[in-house]
Write a structure and sequence with these properties.
Largest sheet: 2 strands, antiparallel
Number of helices: 14
Strand order of the largest sheet: 1-2
Distance between the termini: 19 Å
Strand content: 5-15%
Order of helices and strands: HHHHHHEEHHHHHEEHHEEH
Shape: globular
Number of strands: 6
């Protein structure tokens, strides 16, 4: 408990610093550009995997493979069930999804043939590095320093520290308003960034069709998210039907991204 309180204090302190920085908006734009390139290269993977209710169990599955001595699928399923985000069938489906996308590989247990071991593939580790790298230019913008996953224990060190963030409860973003309207939907992280980074005077310079095309989701999916965001007081529409980003949306997005930046700084061992 003392360790978790310490992590929360360090992250909260860093978030406060980032939110007061003039570099926050440029940093979000930098991350958006890097993330857009990665997302567009494999939208079928990232629009599914980065939905919050899948992303957190996926991180737990990957962390377990790096940081635990035994890598049994049944063991990590039990651990994931404790966070109460997916049922057992959905978790096994997630494992199959990671396997089909060559993020993990599976093999029979030598001790019990009814059970399976798993490990992260080269493609999986490369994807982890790519995800972290989408933050590199943004963190340079904020901190005026180069950051690298090779520092402080590499991928294993990063995931071990990132697991502490999961254990602290911070990765659920319970304190970031109605951000789940976006991030707990397929493609939601990118949709949120796309709206934030493509507006002028709080008016979105685009359309539902553009959002749908760029984020590789249906127009109906986008329309539902926008409708929910309007209901929650995050977005509005003017008399011409243009999407307006309300101050609540701007504040929510900046706090969400300040937390994301601070998580990566902590995971890299810089906090």
């Amino acid at each position: 408990m003392i360790k978790q309180v310490n992590i929360i204090h360090r992250i909260d302190s860093e978030v406060t610093t980032i939110l007061s920085s003039d570099g926050l908006t440029p940093a979000i734009h930098q991350h958006y550009e890097s993330f857009k390139a990665m997302y567009s290269a494999d939208p079928g993977l990232y629009k599914i995997l980065l939905k919050k209710s899948r992303f957190i169990p996926s991180v737990m599955i990957i962390v377990h493979a790096y940081c635990e001595e035994k890598h049994l699928i049944s063991d990590i399923i039990k651990k994931c069930l404790m966070i109460n985000m997916m049922n057992v069938n959905s978790l096994y489906s997630l494992v199959d999804f990671l396997y089909l996308h060559n993020i993990i590989k599976k093999s029979p247990s030598s001790e019990d043939k009814r059970k399976q071991h798993y490990a992260v593939t080269e493609k999986g580790e490369s994807g982890i590095v790519k995800m972290i790298t989408t933050m590199a230019s943004a963190l340079y913008q904020l901190k005026n320093r180069d950051v690298s996953v090779d520092d402080n224990g590499g991928v294993t060190g990063f995931l071990g520290r990132y697991n502490n963030i999961i254990d602290s409860g911070l990765l659920f973003f319970h304190d970031v308003g109605e951000v789940d309207v976006f991030i707990n939907k397929n493609g939601g992280h990118f949709i949120l960034l796309y709206l934030y980074c493509n507006h002028q005077n709080n008016e979105f310079n685009g359309s539902v069709a553009k959002l749908s095309a760029y984020c590789h989701v249906s127009r109906t999916h986008i329309a539902r998210i926008i409708s929910e965001a309007i209901h929650q007081g995050l977005l509005a529409k003017n008399s011409q039907g243009k999407i307006i980003l309300l101050p609540e949306f701007i504040a929510m997005t900046e706090k969400y991204m300040a937390r994301q930046f601070s998580f990566v700084m902590y995971g890299l061992g810089y906090l």
